[in-house]
Inverse folding.
């Protein structure tokens, strides 16, 4: 252990199949190492070499193993997991997709499943049981040992997207009358698995209400006889159990936290959240925002069936198609104008695309800004003003662009002026709609990312055609539109 | 301290201006509380009540204060910060935007600035100095005390987006020959500020090479005479100093880490990264991906000048305009067809918008999938196949939609069939381009989020016009296109 080249993780190792202690994949070469291991697993499974499969799986850290299993088929994943003993299996399970999980559970009886779930941290056990159908969840809970059952049953009562849904029950408390020595003795009585996620000891009164917290380093340097309340942080931070997970994440970021206690409305300590769970929340929330802006569903990440993906995308696409019907009907309304001046039609894509681009830019900035706190309820007016100013400036430049392009191509000054004016107005309209709709949704208490995409696309398409063809018809004296 | 209603943080407090210990804003009612405090600050500044301003600022946690200051003007921010003593000021500074920071620093001499920066954690001090112009950075460094200067100078050598750019120098090491009691004694000799970010003691050999790490809880429960190497995790995880920050974040998530040691290529310990820094990285990377997909710049978040925002958005918009020129020219090429059948023009928006929607859906899924690891180099082929299947299925449904709409509106069976066929092909083309281009960029080593938006938009607009008008001209026998 004293030679650097015998250190266990050894990320520079060229052979991804090397054995030894539990190994960790080189984070700078993950894709390649994972792929090599995926191929190796498939090869061994094909050859029926169950023992070699188990050795290989046990050799990997649970985090790496779950990443490697992700792209494998449900059948292969289930076979590999079926070979593992309950303890490492429990660590992998919370990262496995639901279909592999239920296929695996079909192979096991409730007693076996309960044994595995008892090994999991309480928050992850709750996630797994929460995803089961209620009947099976009941049965598994009944088969679990009393302590773990009680914890999971309590955690199941909270929304999975709240602080209560994120928190675990693995924490240590001491009374405000205890000494530091007593707090250390309490820690000593715990199992190492539970200690691993312990970063502080919480001090409570005799009604379990949170009074403060003691970071472990303070216990290390304190004299055993010192009263706990003398070394604790009395102004320690906490969150309430029903706080939304997005707000939990933002609380962690604002205060640079590693873990935080969770209290109920009577200030009673009910759990704790650690930063690693918050990392997952942030990942999830960012994927959700991107998905919603793009009109796809979060469920399709990792989904391999084209049928299921198509089914999840179609509502959005058909909604957009219906919205487009409005644009078609606007153009039908202006049929005479288009017949009188066909060149008008050529610039429809340019006008519409620019409305779309500006709409996406402005709405993404608001949606992301609301998520990160750059934009909020009280700054909506100021933000709208900024976007309005931006739209006038960009509109002027783009209008000059389309004026030049169209004048060169068509040598028709009147048309070029109409295009420039229409472009200017369309850009301003798209910016106001693109920033305004998500703000309006936020004010109404609706997540702006949900409805932003389709609303804005449709509104901009229809309005840009009305503005463009309306201005052209009036200014180029192309006659009254058809009735 | 024994009554729950006298607990210090007291998040349910209705009056946001209540005094007492350092207070923390209620995370479930942040926008409102922050806004009230912003107004209060502006009011007090207007009244010239400097002392009240300072009291109010000192009353808030540094995290909350920096969030409250964000929307205030540079002048107001600078005035408030100028009233604070170096210690709380240092904690707020790393969260303040660059313009407020440089305005504040203009009011101070280098000696004063150095005093403030010395109070900051080394990673944050490095970020602040790294953002200065090189000459000022030199001067500040020269004015700093030797120990802090050495740390910051070393950290400045690493790319801000690498593990070296994220890491701090606040960690404790013991030798592999030390006992646990010695490790605790080493911790006792540190200042409390440095201990706050300490979650483990690193064990090194006599050449500073990382041998293992001891979580604090193990030191608490170990006997003082136990050798450190007996309680340490020998297979502890670490990252190398030049690992990209996005990969550091993914390493934290895979292995559920709270902190990780950073080593150089000789395995020598050079720093440590904590989960709170990784939370910031994830926030930053997600904002970057969303911004790039939407064609906006990360710099515009928090930017209040419409002029600067317009300048950052215009390149993208003008690029899209130039791309649109292609679509205009395609339509000019098919002028005869459009003249022969004007109804063709009405459906251009529908076809183009659908190409745009499918392009955004497919490219966002690839870009996000590459960021989270759902899609990787070795799974590109499989993902492309999935998208191809999805495109055929969604294409069929949308083609049926446009067939029905156009047949009802135009009662022209041939036109309806042409539209259905063109829609089908356009959806498939857009899906292949939308998934293929980001994959190709990834293979070429380019961040796919950077170039995806403009490329895909332009390719889809031009190609969808070519496909649609080409099919219509041939199948409806509208004569040869113009030369």
């Amino acid at each position: 252990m004293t030679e650097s080249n015998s250190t266990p993780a050894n990320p520079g190792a060229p052979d991804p199949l090397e054995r030894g202690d539990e190994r960790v994949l080189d984070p700078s070469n993950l894709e390649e190492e994972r792929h090599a291991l995926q191929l190796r697993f498939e090869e061994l499974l094909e050859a029926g070499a169950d023992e070699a499969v188990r050795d290989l799986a046990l050799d990997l850290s649970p985090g790496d193993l779950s990443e490697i299993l992700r792209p494998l088929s449900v059948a292969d994943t289930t076979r590999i997991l079926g070979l593992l003993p309950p303890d490492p299996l429990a660590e992998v399970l919370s990262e496995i997709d639901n279909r592999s999980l239920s296929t695996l559970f079909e192979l096991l009886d409730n007693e076996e499943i309960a044994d595995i779930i008892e090994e999991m941290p309480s928050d992850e056990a709750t996630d797994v049981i929460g995803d089961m159908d209620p009947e099976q969840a009941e049965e598994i809970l009944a088969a679990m040992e009393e302590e773990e059952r009680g914890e999971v049953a309590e955690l199941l009562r909270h929304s999975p997207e709240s602080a209560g849904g994120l928190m675990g029950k693995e924490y240590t408390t001491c009374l405000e009358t205890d000494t530091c020595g007593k707090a250390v003795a309490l820690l000593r009585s715990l199992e190492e698995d539970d200690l691993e996620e312990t970063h502080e000891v919480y001090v409570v009164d005799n009604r379990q209400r949170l009074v403060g917290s003691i970071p472990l380093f303070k216990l290390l340097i304190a004299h055993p006889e010192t009263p706990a309340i003398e070394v604790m942080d009395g102004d320690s931070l906490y969150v309430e159990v029903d706080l939304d997970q997005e707000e939990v994440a933002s609380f962690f970021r604002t205060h640079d936290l590693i873990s935080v206690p969770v209290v109920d409305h009577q200030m009673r300590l009910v759990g704790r959240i650690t930063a690693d769970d918050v990392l997952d929340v942030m990942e999830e929330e960012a994927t959700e925002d991107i998905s919603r802006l793009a009109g796809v569903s979060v469920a399709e990440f990792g989904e391999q069936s084209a049928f299921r993906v198509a089914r999840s995308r179609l509502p959005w696409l058909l909604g957009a198609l219906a919205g487009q019907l409005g644009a078609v009907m606007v153009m039908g309304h202006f049929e005479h104008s288009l017949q009188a001046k066909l060149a008008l039609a050529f610039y429809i894509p340019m006008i519409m695309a620019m409305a779309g681009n500006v709409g996406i830019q402005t709405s993404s900035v608001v949606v992301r800004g609301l998520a990160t706190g750059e934009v909020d309820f009280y700054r909506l007016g100021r933000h709208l003003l900024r976007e309005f100013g931006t739209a006038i400036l960009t509109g002027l430049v783009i209008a000059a662009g389309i004026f030049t392009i169209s004048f060169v191509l068509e040598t028709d000054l009147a048309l070029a002026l109409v295009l420039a004016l229409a472009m200017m107005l369309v850009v301003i309209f798209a910016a106001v709609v693109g920033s305004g709709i998500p703000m309006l949704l936020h004010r109404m208490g609706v997540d702006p990312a949900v409805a932003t995409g389709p609303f804005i696309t449709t509104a901009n398409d229809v309005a840009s055609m009305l503005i463009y063809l309306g201005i052209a018809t009036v200014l180029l004296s192309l006659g009254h539109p058809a009735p």
Observations:
- Residues 4-161 of chain B form a domain with the MgtE N-terminal fold fold (CATH 1.25.60.10).
